[in-house]
Every structure is written in structure tokens, then in C-alpha cells.
Amino acid sequence: MDGHDDEMKDNMPSPTNSQKTVSDDEEIDYSIKPEFYDSDLDVKDESWVQKKRKGRASDAVLSCPACFTTLCLECQRHEKYVTQYRAVFVVNCKIGSDQVIHQKGTKPRRGKSGRQSSEIETVPAGNQTFKHVCCLVCSTEVGVIDEDEVYHFFNVLPSES
Predict the structure, then answer these.
(1) pTM flag (> 0.85)
(2) Which DSSP letter does residue 19 get?
(3) How many angstroms separate the Cα of 95 from the Cα of each of 92, 130, 135, 142, 145?
(4) Rounded Cα–Cα distance for residues 73 and 63 (Å)
């Protein structure tokens, strides 16, 4: 290397030294009330949810696992499968009419020794028809709806109600 190359390096600004680093805290003016802040918002939200539920209790508030959109404010947790819920009143859900799922009544399971197992599926006898239920916002499949218009959610994020 000759001396000319060294001069060019010295004259080029360094990316780390070219600008003063400013923290976000230094740019925020805390003397001005934030535009979107409401100290009573939690109380208002709770009141709105209680009005929608009409005083009924719920096991959870269900949200879409992909976009976190609220899907159900009032549901009941499955006794055996604790990650599944059923509900009648939902929001932000669309029913897929293009695919119908048929489920026949199940027979008692047989264990390895051939005897009947005490674990029997809780599906009523006869055929059942289900349709896919998806999130209205992002189209993620979140469950199914049966012939009695009861929603069965299995792909949701529950939160305490």
C-alpha cells in the first residue's frame, strides 16, 4: 500500500462515528400527554365485555393464534381436551362452505389385548357434519361448526376472562 490509500481511508467518515447516537428516551417529550392514552380504558373495556356477555360467565376469551383477533368472548372449555372450547356466540369468524367434514359415530376402542377400553369417544351415535371455521381477518383455521351451530375451537389462544 502506498501513502495515497492511507489518506483516502482517513478522509472517509466512519459509519459508527458519522452520527451521534440518540436514544428514543432523549427524543420523547414527557411533558405532553400521549395522544392515544386513556387511563380509564381498562375499565371501559371490561364494561363493554360484561355488556356483551349479559352477565354470563366464560372459561376464556379466545383469540386467533396468527393475528390475535378476538374470536369469542363467551365459551366453555372441553372437560377432557383442555385446549378445546365450544361456543355459540362468536365474532370475527367465517364458515368455510366449500368443505364439509363427515364424522361417523365411533365404536368403543379396543386395547391391545382386545378388550374394550374404558376410554370411549364422546361423539354421539350417528353421522355428524362439520364445516371449517376460519378467522375473518387472516383466514387461519381455528375450529369447526356442527349441524347444531355450535362452534368447536381447537386452534385458538385462550386468555383469562
Answers:
(1) no
(2) S
(3) 10, 10, 9, 10, 8
(4) 9
